[in-house]
Amino acid sequence: MQISILLVTLLGMAFVAAAFVFVVLNSGPRDEDYGGIAKRGYFIRRWWMIGLCAAGVVVSAWSLVPFPLQASSVESPRIIQAIGRQWSWELASSSVEAGEPVRFRVTSLDVNHGFAIYGPDDQIIAQTQAMPGYYNDLDVTFERAGKYRVLCLEYCGLAHHTMVAEIDVKERR
Ligand code: CUA
Asked: Which CATH number is 101's domain given?
């Protein structure tokens, strides 16, 4: 997925660069024939807009989001408090069942942290901010059993990289 995002980004950059080169090559001394230039400008602009819209449709249909967008809130999920502090995570429970809707209630005791859950394949599956004085709800339903990890995604001091917690997702009983 990350690769396809990279490819799309590179394609987009190439497109912008090509447009830039096109404009540079086509610019020149001022022409007296304003009418013709305007007509041509409108023509290019129209096709540019149509192209942009088409690209937008393709990209959204392709759903180029690295993790699923948060679905509408789940009925009566299991609530798990998650507290970040320099430099550890404290989860009220670190054991859940696959398929069980979970709502992480995320906060921090000191500075801002990034609460990010990574799957057994080290792909990020969900994330939110851990902020002092606020609770951010993060709804997650773990589809597969395995060892998941919570990492801090926001630099929060010397031992930021040690903020790791494990979530053990068990096979559905
Ligand atoms: Cu907490 Cu970085």
From this structure: 2.60.40.420
Q: Is the CB of 156 under 6 A from ligand 1?
A: yes
Taking only the tens place, the pLDDT of each residue in 13-61 is 999 989 988 988 888 766 566 666 777 888 888 899 999 989 888 877 7
151 pocket-lining for ligand 1 (C-beta < 6 Å): no
pTM of structure: 0.59
Q: How many CB atoms lie within 10 A of CB 156?
A: 21
Count Cα neighbours of 157 within 13 Å in the Cβ-side half-sphere: 12
CA 128 to centroid of ligand 1, rounded, Å: 12
Task: Count other Cβ atoms within 10 Å, centred on residue 167.
Answer: 24
**Which residues in the chain come in under a pLDDT of 50?**
none
In this prediction, residue 155 carries a pLDDT of: 96
And the tokens for 106? 């995320």
Question: Which atom of ligand 1 lies closest to the CA of 154?
Answer: 2
Atom of ligand 1 nearest to the CA of 163: 1
- Whole domain around residue 85: which residue ranges? 78-170
For the CA of 161, the nearest atom of ligand 1:
2
One domain, residues 43 and 86: no
